[in-house]
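From the methods appendix. Each design record in this collection lists the tokenized structure first, followed by the designed amino acid sequence. Records were kept in a plain field format so they could be parsed without special tools. The example shown here is representative of the layout used throughout.

RECORD:
FOLD TOKENS (300 positions):
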């Protein structure tokens, strides 16, 4: 069994120094507490295909606190999306256990504990922006008036009030992604699962979206599990950056990010020495201390 375990109290660790997995405090066994959003215990995932078996995840342990922002980073194919999909109940682990707010992913999904946003905004082209945001509420039988009020609030939150009656194709990529994020927040989830939601955006839009996401999460208090290939993005957003190894995916290091509280992170932070130090710490964690470039990881 690997020692790649993490503890809730690591988020308070003082410096952006990579923590070798072997020194990370072990998570005690037993049920997660009320302050735990996600508890992944000894999870492995093996896919069986015609060409043979693929071990995507091997004995992954990860505990994420309520309200905590955690990014997953690692080389292409290391199992980041697979881990997110298991938490989202879009697939099942081959072994090990996952709890979301103390319940199974299935029960958590049914209770609408989390929202999901992926790289493609995934909006329905025939519905207006407001109707897209309302969709999850509609599916769960929320009344028309309440839906409209909630969508109006969310569109104000992401700065798209004036576009409520537009259709997705009339919006830029960044605006569409903001609609997708508004939709993921519709049911006031305590957890957001985000798989490269800004991957298709240009750099300027992407940075603006990161700043907005930090603000939104501070306002809603949601915990976030965020998959990205970008080290600066992971550092800017997160309280901890979880570094994974090439397949079979394991957690090799956990880098606590000791910048301003995430709620207070602004663009100025990107020029800060502490920001660069954290970026370097993650980069070194990814490369095991060598300057070699990991496949599929953007180190800019
Ligand atoms: N449904 C599936 N059937 C078979 N193999 C799969 C399936 N889903 C994922 N895999 C394999 O599991 C491994 C992990 O894939 P995953 O998409 O989780 O990686 P990732 O870290 O998110 O990659 P990327 O950074 O390129 O998006 C890969 O080798 C992939 O081919």
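DESIGN:
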């Amino acid at each position: 069994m690997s020692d790649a375990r993490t503890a809730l109290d690591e988020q308070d660790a003082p410096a952006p120094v990579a923590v070798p997995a072997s020194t990370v405090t072990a998570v005690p066994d037993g049920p997660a507490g009320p302050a735990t959003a996600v508890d992944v215990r000894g999870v492995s995932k093996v896919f069986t295909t015609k060409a043979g078996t693929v071990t995507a995840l091997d004995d992954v342990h990860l505990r994420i606190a309520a309200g905590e922002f955690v990014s997953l980073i690692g080389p292409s194919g290391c199992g980041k999306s697979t881990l997110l999909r298991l938490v989202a109940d879009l697939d099942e682990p081959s072994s090990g256990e996952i709890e979301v707010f103390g319940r199974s992913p299935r029960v958590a999904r049914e209770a609408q504990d989390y929202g999901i946003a992926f790289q493609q905004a995934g909006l329905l082209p025939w519905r207006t922006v407001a109707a897209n945001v309302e969709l999850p509420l509609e599916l769960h039988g929320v009344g028309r008036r309440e839906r409209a009020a909630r969508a109006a609030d969310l569109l104000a939150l992401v700065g798209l009030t004036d576009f409520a009656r537009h259709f997705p194709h009339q919006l830029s990529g960044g605006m569409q992604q903001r609609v997708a994020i508004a939709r993921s927040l519709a049911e006031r989830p305590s957890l957001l699962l985000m798989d490269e939601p800004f991957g298709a955006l240009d750099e300027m839009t992407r940075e603006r979206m990161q700043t907005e996401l930090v603000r939104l999460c501070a306002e809603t208090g949601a915990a976030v599990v965020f998959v990205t290939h970008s080290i600066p993005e992971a550092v800017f957003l997160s309280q901890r950056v979880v570094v994974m190894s090439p397949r079979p995916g394991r957690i090799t290091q956990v880098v606590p990010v000791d910048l301003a509280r995430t709620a207070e992170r602004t663009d100025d932070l990107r020029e800060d020495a502490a920001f660069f130090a954290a970026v370097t710490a993650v980069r070194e964690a990814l490369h095991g201390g060598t300057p070699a470039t990991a496949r599929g990881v953007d180190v800019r």
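APPENDIX NOTE: The first strand starts at residue 19 and ends at 20.
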